[in-house]
Specification:
With 413 residues, this protein is an alpha/beta fold. The protein is built from 17 helices and 13 strands. It has two domains: 212 residues, 3-Layer(aba) Sandwich (Rossmann fold), CATH 3.40.50; 182 residues, Glycogen Phosphorylase B (Rossmann fold). It has a seven-stranded parallel β-sheet, with helices on both faces.
Length: 413
């Protein structure tokens, strides 16, 4: 283990926190956007650092402001990058070389993984150079992947502690140096009790549970349109990836169509599985009932929740081990009092309690999914009860103004 950090002596007042992320802003990590906005609202003094710039997409004005103030590691300005390396080699040679040696001599599954660690070390040096003029007191990384290595390196070079938040794929899909990242962090948080139990089992370190949250004042302000559509709307939102399990939803729609149900099913999102899903929809002759809507602006997605009869998220464990934690789209749907159907997987049962706040089925079971959807389509009272209870559950446990307070306590301690 690397030696323990010595906290920098700071002036009285709040600490200056550097937030390091892999790509920011990003459509698939809007929970980070909400966290940063709320932390700033509560007075946290933040420096935003992203390894990669965002892909082009339609950002809300407040997110554009965050992007404008973010320091981006890539692309690297090479002359300044060489100068940063020379500076730290000359001023902190032992720390620079010992950190590089430590990272490269840890166990890696492949040569390619070790090469990536070397490049992430270099990114960490540049992150330290970007953060040094800001006089940061603490570094926090989102995701226990490359961002955590960058944070570890920068924290050593700047002589400040670092922490990290672990999520999903960074934990379960071929994690690199996971134990080392956690062991050297001042503290580690994760967003589900399921993740917490897993990480404490495999690393033998204490993990703090800090749920994500929603800004409920924003949700309350969304207008509720009248429902004049002829057919009920089955809504789903997520990346078109294996772990989302969308083929099972499409197959369930075929079963429902065969049983005589009339409905529309919309899947909002984009990803590598679009072609596969389009083929399946065509093979099952569902083009008139199941639509892939692609990426929509966040405001439009939130409006679609208010128009939905029910929300379905058929999550599974992907073949590479990837899985969801507590998908934020479930929270968004429940906050809009939309009854939800999802799978008994990972952290989902921490928010969807079967028969109380929603309906749960086993992953990969399209027949059970069709049955659960049919229950909700047939029973307006059940939809109302589950929607109301789900909304109450999210309001009590996933209010970002409450949940971010725990993270702020940890960052400021």
């Amino acid at each position: 283990m690397l030696h323990k950090h010595m906290d920098r002596i700071s002036c009285p007042g709040k600490k200056r926190i550097a937030y390091i992320m892999g790509s920011f802003p990003c459509l698939t990590t809007t929970f980070i956007d909400r966290e940063i906005l709320e932390a700033k609202r509560q007075g946290v003094n933040m420096v935003l650092v992203s390894i990669r710039p965002p892909s082009p997409f339609q950002m809300r004005p407040e997110i554009k402001e965050l992007a404008a103030e973010t320091k981006y590691i890539l692309p690297v300005p090479w002359l300044r990058f060489v100068g940063a390396n020379l500076y730290f080699i000359l001023t902190r040679p032992r720390v620079y070389l010992s950190t590089l040696f430590y990272l490269l001599t840890r166990q890696h599954n492949t040569v390619a993984a070790r090469a990536k660690t070397f490049f992430h070390f270099a990114e960490g040096v540049w992150a330290a150079a970007l953060s040094r003029p800001e006089r940061v007191d603490h570094i926090h990384a989102h995701f226990a992947d490359r961002a955590a290595i960058v944070a570890l390196v920068a924290s050593r070079l700047l002589r400040v502690p670092y922490s990290l938040t672990a999520h999903a794929s960074d934990i379960y899909v071929s994690p690199v140096l996971l134990s080392e990242k956690i062991a050297n962090a001042k503290f580690v948080t994760t967003c589900t009790g399921y993740n917490k139990a897993h990480l404490e089992r495999v690393t033998e370190h204490r993990i703090e549970l800090v749920y994500h949250g929603l800004d409920l004042t924003v949700v309350e302000a969304i207008p509720r349109p009248s429902h004049n559509d002829q057919f009920p709307l089955i809504l789903s939102v997520g990346q078109l990836k294996e772990k989302k399990g969308f083929p099972y939803l499409i197959k369930a729609c075929r079963l429902l169509k065969n049983q005589g149900y009339g409905f529309r099913c919309e899947i909002i999102g984009e990803g590598s599985r679009r072609g596969e899903l389009e083929t399946l929809i065509a093979e099952l002759k569902l083009q008139d009932m199941v639509m892939l809507r692609g990426i929509l602006p966040n405001t439009e997605v939130m409006t679609r929740y208010t128009q939905a009869t029910l929300f379905v998220l058929p999550c599974v464990i992907a073949r590479d081990g990837d899985r969801d934690g507590i998908p934020n789209v479930l929270l968004e749907a429940m906050t809009n009092c939309v009854p939800v159907v999802s799978t008994n997987l990972s952290g989902i049962p921490e928010v969807v309690q079967d028969g109380v706040t929603g309906l749960l089925i086993d992953p990969g079971d399209e027949e059970a999914m069709a049955e659960a959807i049919a229950r909700l389509l047939n029973d307006a009272q059940l939809r109302e009860r589950l929607g109301r209870k789900g909304c109450q559950w999210v309001e009590e446990r996933f209010n970002i103004r409450t949940n971010i307070g725990r993270l702020i306590e940890l960052l400021e301690s």
